[in-house]
Amino acid sequence: MDRGFRRRKFLHATGAGLLALGSGCSTLRANSRWSVELGGSPARSRKLADDGFVVASTLESSGELGFVRFSGKHESLAELPRITASPVLDGNRALVEADGVIQKIPLSGGNPTSLGTGYLAFGRYSPIIAGSRLYGVGYSDDIEKYGVFSLDLKTERIEWLHPFGHTRSSADTDGERVFAASPTGMVRAYDATDGTPLWSRKTAGRAALTHHDGTVFVASMGGVSALNPTNGSVRWHTESDWIGSVGTIPEANDSSVYAVFSLYSSHRRTRLAMETYVVAYNRKTGDERWRKRAKFGTPLTVTADAVAFESVERAETSDGKTKSRERLSIFGTGGGRKQQYELSDRVTMKPILRDDVIIVGDGKTIVAHDR
Fold first, then answer.
1. Is the pLDDT of residue 281 over 70?
2. Does 73 score more than 90 pLDDT?
3. Tell me: the pLDDT tens digits for 104-141?
4. How far apart are CA 88 and CA 102, in angstroms?
5. pTM of the predicted structure, to 2 decimals
6. Looking at beta carbons, which pairs linking 155-160 to residues 24 or more positions away fall under 8 Å?
7. How far apart are CA 104 and CA 81, in angstroms?
8. 3-state SS, one letter per residue, for 130-172
9. What is the rounded CA–CA span in Å between residue 18 and residue 11?
10. At 53, phi and psi to the nearest 5?
């Protein structure tokens, strides 16, 4: 069916400047390498291929799945109904949920085929793959509510499903266990093979989690908790009563865990009195290392030596007033800024950090900048 998609446009952008701040100096770098315009907000797969990444046009009445090479070439793979969650890369194919149907699409081309899962709609956060299984939280017609699920990618059938959470629930795995967090604050662990419930832990509202190197990190309106994946015991907890919202799932590397929090800036505790920050905590002790102003809802990317997100700064105008200025910023793990890039819209896709380039969703456009 022709869903009226526009042809993809490959734009060699001009005039997209880069302001690099580091070692006490400011320099204006070269223009962006390339850009690709999509028909909706871009959402990419967490895992990257050797030569590019899978990306979906989301939050429109019709969606599209494509593959963007690191050279800037975009290849359309399939036109689909509305897509809300990021696609998943599974070897030489992509998995994406469109209107409650999970589709598999070969990266080499070919028609989409649906998995035999019945109606299963992913929530805000896409599922993850471990081995031959897909784990996540989605709405299932079988139980008529959201649930944690395990999908066998060989048989293409649901192995187990437990009622849990809702559209903003997150999940992760260490291969042996599946961890899930609900915005109600409940965190649960399940046996990855058969779904047997293992433990539960109550945290605060808006809870979201990630697993990294033997620890489950939970960000909630009560702060950040580090949990033992075996039994759910608390290794450390940073408590705060100033958190008004949790922006996204936390990220971690070997030195820190990073959370996006909207913090009340006064005792009035209204949304008009909140400021959003990316906060870095020592992953071993929970001590705060640094915090930076950020755009509410910013995607967050963390690597071994860098952190990228949409930052917010106060800038003075020609008439002496101040206003907020949003930029895509790359910080080192110690909190020092490495580079800063101008935006024409807002950051909509998790940035991709490579040795010589950063690739970001800027509104409905994917842009590559030299680093």
1. yes
2. yes
3. 999 998 899 999 899 999 989 999 999 999 999 999 99
4. 11
5. 0.89
6. 156/115, 156/116, 156/117, 157/116, 157/117, 158/117, 158/118, 158/120, 159/133, 159/194, 159/195, 160/190, 160/194, 160/195
7. 14
8. ECCEEEEEEEECCCCEEEEEEEECCCCEEEEEEECCCCCCEEE
9. 18
10. -150, 155
